[in-house]
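Submission sheet (multi-component)
Chains listed below:
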Amino acid sequence: MLEEPHDIALTVNGVHRTARAPARRLLSDLLRHDLGLTGTHVGCEHGVCGCCTVLLDGDPVRSCLLFAVTAAGHEVTTVEGLAAPDGTPSPVQRAFRECHGLQCGFCTPGFLCTVTALLRETPRPTEDQVLEGISGNLCRCTGYQNIVKSVRRAAELAAADGAATDEGTA
Amino acid sequence: MKPPPFRYHAPRTLEEALDVLAADPSAKVLAGGQSLVPLLNMRLAAPSALVDINRVAGLDVLRVRDDGVRVGALARHARVERSAEAGAVQPLLRLALRHVAHPVIRNRGTVVGSLAHADPAAELPAVLALVGGTVEVASAAGRRTVRADAFFRGPLEPALEPGDLAVSAFFPALPPRTGAAFAETSRRHGDYALAGAAATVALDRDLRVTSARAAYLGVAATPLVLDLTGAAGPAGDWAAASAHVLERVEPEADIHASADYRRHLTGVLTARVLRAAAAGALRDLRKAEGC
Ligand SMILES: Cc1cc2nc3c(=O)[nH]c(=O)nc-3n(C[C@H](O)[C@H](O)[C@H](O)COP(=O)(O)OP(=O)(O)OC[C@H]3O[C@@H](n4cnc5c(N)ncnc54)[C@H](O)[C@@H]3O)c2cc1C
Ligand code: FES
Ligand code: FES
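Outcome: structure written.
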């Protein structure tokens, strides 16, 4: 079958991006191959490992289970878009670094996106909420203990950042 | 692996979607994609075309009324799970949705898509079957309402013909003085269950059991609904009800669990959900009586 290409326009990390790709192009592959954003990793391609997780209009989703054509017109945030515009790592990124929440780093982009959304919705998660929140992401290296610590630390850092901003504007 | 090529349609209206589906009998509906895209990625499915319904206006309804909850084809698991109104009218929705995959999958997957996928190990088909719900199906030829017991025809075999689109599903409200419970056992949290059970128990004012029903997932080709009122008796003998269930289930073995283990789980889960549902009914009665 000769594949008809589709013009796909979407916002990625705040920037308007376009690409021409067949309908079967997964969002994960569009990000990596067409847009050169290789921070989003691909492991299983059937929704199980979570390392391809990105934010779609703010909600974490599997980019390997979403066709780029379906995401057209929407806002996507990848791991490359989590830091501040000046490059300052986000609270979640700082926490993972501080608490050794990664070893090889393959799973990390998915965890960072998942946890960013988790803490936005639940700024002070209980232990159970943390475990449930990251239950869909697999890590072959860390044994998860330091990832759980990172999530808790990220909640503290985000709260401190929020307090600092509040003071700054008061 | 990568999905095989397909023609892609992104209709904006239901009429347009039904026309495209009518014109191509081997086209498939794409909703949340959380079951279909893995199948495509693994090349276990190769539809000629996909009709992506994500842009179809009017399908994202979640309407809660006293008589039940209507869930449109674009209402995602996460949204239904979070709806306190839906949970108050039919608590089994929430209770079951917590066991459907992981939160991130639930952000995309749809309730109606899960029914249309008709996986025998899925939670929502068992819930629809237990509460006697229906699926509203549309095609270019017209509309029909399909009852749950007719909708699940076999494993991954819903009562949907080429050209059909499931527009919504209706989950009737939990009746008064009735409690509901859901439990399952899986290898890892978020996995499809080895076996699972949903139950409703109704009590009268003298605290006699007037109805005890359970639905099972993972132990038959389609959701299995059993009326356990007689087996449990008015006093609610849950052990007797479990023993009754053990004689009626014929689970299959697979790499995840032996048939015997699944049967054992079915018994354990039966007692657990019936007890929890009865406790719920009791709470409901006490609340109604204000004591
Ligand atoms: C890692 C992982 C774990 C999972 N675990 C579970 C689990 O524990 N329990 C569980 O129940 N599910 C589980 N799922 C599946 C998930 O719940 C899916 O969301 C659901 O089964 C299908 O919904 P969907 O909207 O994603 O449908 P899609 O994937 O888009 O479609 C599934 C099928 O239904 C058809 N279809 C969809 N919508 C319609 C419609 N409106 N009309 C006609 N046909 C339609 C499609 O053509 C396709 O054949 C899991 C998925 C993943 C990736
Ligand atoms: S690559 Fe998407 S979940 Fe594994
Ligand atoms: S750090 Fe290696 S997989 Fe998680």
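Remark: Residues 89 and 176 of chain B are 10 Å apart (CA to CA).
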